[in-house]
Write a structure and sequence with these properties.
The complex is a heterodimer.
Chain A: E1 6-10, E2 35-40, H1 46-60, E3 65-70, H2 80-89, E4 92-96
Parallel strand pairs in A: 2-3, 2-4
Chain B: H1 2-10, E1 14-19, H2 23-32, E2 40-43, H3 52-60, H4 70-79, H5 84-87, E3 99-104, H6 105-114, H7 128-135, E4 145-149, E5 158-161, H8 162-171, H9 179-187, E6 201-207, H10 210-213, H11 228-244, E7 268-270, H12 281-284, E8 293-300, H13 314-323, E9 332-335, H14 337-347, H15 352-362, H16 367-371, H17 374-379, H18 381-384, E10 393-395, H19 419-426, E11 458-463, E12 471-474
Parallel strand pairs in B: 1-2, 6-7, 8-11
Antiparallel strand pairs in B: 4-5, 6-8, 9-12
Helix pairs in contact in B: 7-8, 8-9, 8-11, 9-11
The chains are: A alpha/beta, B alpha/beta.
Chain lengths: 99, 495
């Protein structure tokens, strides 16, 4: 091939899936008097971090009710039973670590 | 991911906590799942293994990405009204142009390198002529969809065609006669560039007549850089995985903490069927000897080695070797034909099943040690729990232990019953009796290759990790059988 000659080649990338935008939930005016769940997804000692976070909330924001839960299954699994509990009882959720 | 579900389906505001190393990953995932403005809070990496005091410092400290106080961000994530930007409709257009160029050869190599389309080694540019020559080796049409692939189960799956597989095969330097094997690997939909912090790689083992037809190596040096077919088929598997799944970029679509040198060609070789004292791997799993099959293994990240079996202490040597490995995945023995024969001569294992059973019975370790491995904690422990959310801790105000699921006075060592039972009971857990003493294996979701690819070389999926050798003997617990993916019909693709 001559130097400087240009050519066209094929793109090696696959085809990405279509994305549908999802809406975010409305936020609370305040956490006072609300129930905040801290949910551990069971990954790499995340429960220990969330328990520290819960302790911080209990110390600094005693008007907030905090509930700690561990999601069932491996971190990537959904937990419909827990999520339904959250729907019924949680005003907000702090979830970690990761996923 | 779960926060996106809670926000969009349950209407609950969330604060999603991550470590800083996943900063780019989580933003990509949020975008791909349709919530590009998801609210994140980051803490330092790692969380794993940190003391309560260190984690408390994380909580009271600053987000390492934004520099702002962590708890302030948590509270704001839950209470600050959605901004106009967060409510705005976002464009998700992501097209994949068919062509690259026109550009000079040198410019194209630079483009491929900068786009992360290579393994950072020189590639063969995929001109239309070269790709057409590759496509001539299969009866499948270029625009036929082969499947979908993703770096991990939590990421989006990208789709690819036969032509796309051929493009990557050309880039790897493969010859057209290798393409049926490469296409079968692509049809497995198992990525050789899986993203896991444990840096696992894949392994591909070829059985049947095609080994001879395309000149693969199954003898001395089979797993080394000494054979064109072995080398380029494995390289093609890696390239097609990273490119067809949407990328394998460290910090974004690849999170292996150390990386893995096996990934350069995914330990691709042919089995030495002729010198194996047992049935070939594909025959063991239901194929005819005259069928050509490629089997995919994942979880290749740890290798232990010993040179043959000594007469006096071979049992202890093998057991020690196995106990030194992470127990999350069952082991795969790769045996030199001489070593394979020694297992028969020393232990009487005239079938693979007998050797597998011996390993199952002897490669054990104390339950407390087993349950304490991080991968077991992540992947087995949650599924072993009899009760959902076996550890629950509700605290309003003060009261309750900080770590109710951690025994207060160390592990139990006295009392009736088996130690593993006592240990689990101490944690407030119960396991069915028949599972207490077993090495628990992760039940994998079976993948189903597209029906129209049934004519391709069979692609099997297994989950194992490799040890050196030339014959393949998967060893497993009884649970491991459930790890096999779906088997595609073993018909050979006609040229």
């Amino acid at each position: 091939m001559a130097s400087g000659e240009k050519l066209v080649v094929l793109n090696p990338m696959g085809y990405p899936p279509k994305i549908t935008q999802l809406g975010m939930a409305p936020r609370l005016d305040t956490l006072d008097g609300k129930t905040v769940y801290l949910v551990d997804v069971r990954f790499d000692d995340g429960d220990r971090l969330l328990l520290q976070m819960q302790a911080w909330l209990n110390e600094h924001m005693p008007q907030v009710k905090t509930v700690f839960r561990q999601k069932a299954g491996v971190y990537m699994d959904e937990d419909p039973e827990l999520f339904e509990e959250l729907r019924q009882k949680a005003d907000a959720v702090i979830l970690g670590v990761g996923h | 991911m779960h926060c996106i579900t809670l926000e969009s389906q349950y209407g609950i505001p969330t604060a999603s906590i991550h470590t800083r190393s996943f900063h780019h990953v989580v933003k990509q995932v949020a975008f791909s799942k349709g919530m590009p403005r998801q609210r994140f809070v980051f803490v330092p990496q790692p969380v794993m293994g940190k003391s309560p005091a260190e984690l408390r410092a994380y909580v009271e400290g600053n987000d390492p990405v934004t520099g702002r106080p962590v708890m302030q961000e948590v509270i704001e994530a839950l209470t600050c009204p959605l901004t106009e930007e967060e409510k705005q409709q976002v464009s998700f257009d992501r097209s994949t142009p068919r062509y690259v160029g026109p550009a000079t050869e040198e410019e194209l190599h630079q483009i491929f390198l900068e786009n992360g389309w290579t393994d950072r080694l020189p590639i063969v540019l995929p001109t239309e002529e070269r790709v057409a020559a590759m496509l001539a080796a299969t009866s499948h049409k270029p625009d036929e969809v082969v499947g979908r692939m993703r770096p991990t189960s939590t990421r989006e799956a990208w789709e690819y065609t036969v032509e796309k597989v051929a493009v990557n095969a050309v880039m790897a330097g493969a010859r057209p006669e290798y393409f049926p094997v490469i296409l079968a690997l692509a049809a497995s939909q198992v990525s050789a560039r899986g993203s896991t912090t444990s840096s696992m790689a894949a392994m591909a083992v070829v059985n049947g007549p095609i080994r001879h037809e395309i000149g693969m190596n199954w003898e001395i040096g089979a797993m080394g850089p000494y054979n064109h077919a072995n080398a380029t088929i494995g390289r093609a598997y890696g390239l097609l995985s990273q490119n067809l799944q949407g990328g394998s970029e460290p910090g974004k679509t690849y999170m292996g903490s150390q990386g893995n040198n096996y990934a350069y060609n995914s330990v691709t070789f042919a089995e030495n069927e002729e010198r194996s004292p047992w049935e070939p791997f594909h025959v063991q799993h239901g194929f005819r000897p005259d069928e050509s099959v490629v089997s995919v293994f994942t979880g290749c990240r740890a290798t232990a080695f010993t040179l043959g079996l000594r007469e006096k202490h071979w049992r202890e040597h093998v057991i020690n070797l196995l106990r030194g490995l992470d127990p999350h995945c069952p082991p795969t023995f790769l045996l030199d034909p001489i070593a394979a024969r020694q297992f028969i001569d020393r232990g009487g294992f005239d079938t693979k099943e007998k050797l597998i059973q011996w390993v199952y019975e002897n490669a054990t370790l104390p339950a407390g040690i087993y349950w304490d491995y991080q991968l077991i904690q992540n992947y087995v422990y949650p599924r072993a729990l009899k009760r959902r959310g076996a550890v629950r801790h509700a605290a309003a105000g003060s009261g309750g232990r900080a770590y109710p699921h951690v025994p207060q006075a160390g592990h139990p060592c006295r009392g009736g019953g088996r130690r593993d039972q006592r240990l689990l009971a101490h944690h407030g857990l119960q396991l069915p009796e028949e599972r207490l003493h077993r090495r628990l294996a992760l039940r994998r979701q079976r993948t189903t290759p597209p029906a129209h690819m049934a004519g391709a070389l069979s692609a099997r999926r297994a989950t194992d990790y490799a040890q050196p050798g030339a014959s393949v003997v998967p060893t497993r617990t009884r649970d491991w059988q459930r790890l096999f993916g779906k088997v595609v019909d073993g018909k050979r693709v006609s040229g």
